[in-house]
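ok trying this again, last paste got cut off
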Amino acid sequence: MESIGIIMNGVTGRMGYRQHLVRSILAIRDQGGVELPDGRKVQVDPILVGRNEAKLAEIAARHGLEKYSTDLDQVLADPAYAIYFDAQLTSVREDALRRAIAAGKHIYTEKPTAENSEVALELARLATAAGVKNGVVHDKLYLPGLRKLERLLRGGFFGQVLSVRGEFGYWVFEGDWQPAQRPSWNYRAEDGGGIVMDMFAHWNYLLENLFGQVESVYTRAVTHIPTRVDERGATYQATADDAAYAIFELAGGVMVSLNSSWTTRVNRDELVEFHVDGTHGSAVAGLHRCRIQPRAATPKPVWNPDLVESIPFREQWQEMPDNEVFDNGFKAQWEQFLLHVLADGPNDYDLLAGARGVRLAEAGLESSATGRRIELTELSL
C-alpha cells in the first residue's frame, strides 16, 4: 500500500499526543489509512520528533512505532516525509515552520501559528512562494454541536442572525492544594501564555466561518489569579491574562459578546456554549449538543418581579438530532488535509487563516491595553 510520511513535532505535549497522535494519526493508521476519491488508500507513516529522546522512545514503544528522532534537520532532509506537523510551544514554532518550508515540506500546524501577526503573515507568504500546501488546525468547526449549528445556518433556520453570546471556560486550579489542569506556561506571557492568545484564534475561525468576518473588537483582558504554583511545586507570578471579556462586530452587522475564562465555575451544560438569536429562531450550541427554539414556538413572557416565574423556559427548547456519526474533530480535519495534499482536495484553513487568528488576538490585547475598540483591516498575501 502507498504511504505518506508525516513528521510529528511536539507529541510529548498533551494536545500533540492525545489529539493529534493517538486520536488522529494512529486512528487513521488503524483504520487502514485515508481513502482517496479514486478509491485508493494511502497509509500514514509518522516519525516522532522532539527534544526529549526518552519520552519519544516511551511513546513510540507504547504504540508500536519504530521511528523517532531528536534531530529535526536530519528528518526534514529525508524525502520520505512529505508533511511537517507542529504542536510545539508557540515560542519555538516559527523557527521550525521556516525550516520545514525551506525543506519543501507541506505544513500542518497548531495555532497560534506565530507570536505576532507580522510573522504569521510572513510564514503564509513563504509557504505560498515555496509552493507547499499548508493548513492550520481548526478543530472546533468539526465538533458535533457546531456542525449542527452550521446545519441550521445553511438551512436558513435563523432568518437574519442578530447576535451571538458565547461563554467558554472553567476553574483551573491554582496548583497549591490541587494540581492545575493546564500547564504553568499558559499563565506566563513571556512563554506565549494567556487566554487571549490561546482562544481568540479559535474565536476568529469560528466566527468568520459561521457568521462573518470580524471587523472590530473591544476586549478587557485581566489576570484574576496573580499567583499560581507550577508543576514542581514552586510559586510563580502569573504574567498572562486568565480571563477576557470581548465584543466583536462582524460583517453584516452581527454582534458577538464572548467571555473566555479559566477563573469561572461552570453552570451550563457544556464547557463552551454559543447562544445565537435570529429573527426566525434561536439556538444554543455546545461541544456536542444543540438546542433550538423556532419563532412559532417562542413563549411570550411578561416582566413581573413580584411573581415567581412559572414558565419552564429551558424545557421549551428542542434538541437537534445527530443525523450522522460524528468522528473526532482533530481526526476529521487531518483526513481533510491529507486529501488536500494527496488529491488536491479543498482546504480553506491555511496559514493565512491562521494569521487572521493571530491578528485578532493582537487586536484584543491592544484593545485591553488602550481601552479602545480596534478595527481590523483585511489581511492578504
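PB: full thing came through this time. The first strand starts at residue 3 and ends at 9.
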